[in-house]
Amino acid sequence: MTVGLLVTCMNDALFPDTGRAVVTLLRRLGVEVDFPAAQTCCGQPMVNTGYLDEAVPLLRRHLEAFAGYEAVVVPSGSCAGSVRHQHRLVAERSGDPGLVRAVEQAAPVYELSEYLVDVLGVVDVGAYFPHRVTYHPTCHSLRMLGVGDRPTRLLQAVRGLRLVELPAATECCGFGGTFAVKNSETSIAMGADKARHVRESGAEVLVAGDNSCLTHIGGLLSRERSGVRVMHLAEVLAATEPVIEEAPREADRTSAGSAALTAGGAR
C-alpha cells in the first residue's frame, strides 16, 4: 500500500521532525510513503476566516498533488478535519460541478491515529519511550473527527511509557489559529489553564496530535520553566529502544590487539 503524506504547513515550516517520524513509523509497519512535493496549504486558514473563494486554488492544488494515492495520512487532526469536512463546502461554493466530483472521488484522508488503528489494525507499533506522559486531545481531532481513544490506546501500548491523566483534558487549549491573534488575552488565559493542568498531572512530556496546539501550550510551559517537554504523537510512536553494542570479550580484545601489533610490525 502506498500513501501520500500531507505533512501540513506548520510541520513543513517549523516541525520537520514530525514528518520524518511519520515516514519512519509507517515504513516500519510496512507502508510505502510518498511525499508529493507539489503539496501546499490545505486551505484551512482561509476557510476558518471566511475566505472560501480564496481557498479554491489551494483545493485544486491539493487534489492534483494527491491524485492516485490509495490514502492520505495527516499528522494533524486540524488539517485532516479541514480536508474531510471543509473541502466539499469550498467546492460547492465555487459552482464548479467538476471540482465537487473531484472532491467526492479523492482518496480518503486519515489523521495518523485513525490510520494506524482503523486501517492498519495495529495498536502496538513497536515503540519504546520510557517517560511519564500525558495526552491533550486537540479540539478538531476530538470534536470534528471523533478520534476518541485511538491515540491513548497507541500510547498505552508503548513499552516503558507511563500514561497519566490530564485534568480537564477535553478543554480547549485556546490556540484556535487566528483566534489566538484576534482574542489574545482570552487565548492566553485558556492556555494558562491548560499548562497548569499539565503541571498538575506530574507528566514529563505532553503529547498531542497537532503541533499548533503544542506550540501554544509549550510556549507557556517554557515561560513558566516547568521542565515539561512537548512532543507530537508521531515522534513518540516512532521512538525505539536504542541498540547497545555488546562490549568485546577479553579474548576478542587480546586477539584484536595481537593482530594490530602484527600489522604494525609488517609496516
TrEMBL record:
Domain Cysteine-rich: from-to ranges = 4-83, 133-217
Q: Organism's domain of life? A: Bacteria
Q: Where is this region: Disordered?
A: 247-267
Q: Which InterPro entries does the record cross-reference, listed alphabetically?
A: Cys_rich_dom (IPR004017)
Any one Gene Ontology molecular-function term assigned to this protein's record: oxidoreductase activity
Q: Name one GO cellular component term.
A: cytosol
Biased composition, Low complexity: where in the chain? 254-267
**What PANTHER family would the database entry show?**
LACTATE UTILIZATION PROTEIN A (PTHR30296:SF0), UNCHARACTERIZED PROTEIN YKGE (PTHR30296)
- List the protein's name: Glycolate oxidase
Please name the source species.
Pseudonocardia halophobica
Query: Which classification does the entry list for the species?
Result: Bacteria, Bacillati, Actinomycetota, Actinomycetes, Pseudonocardiales
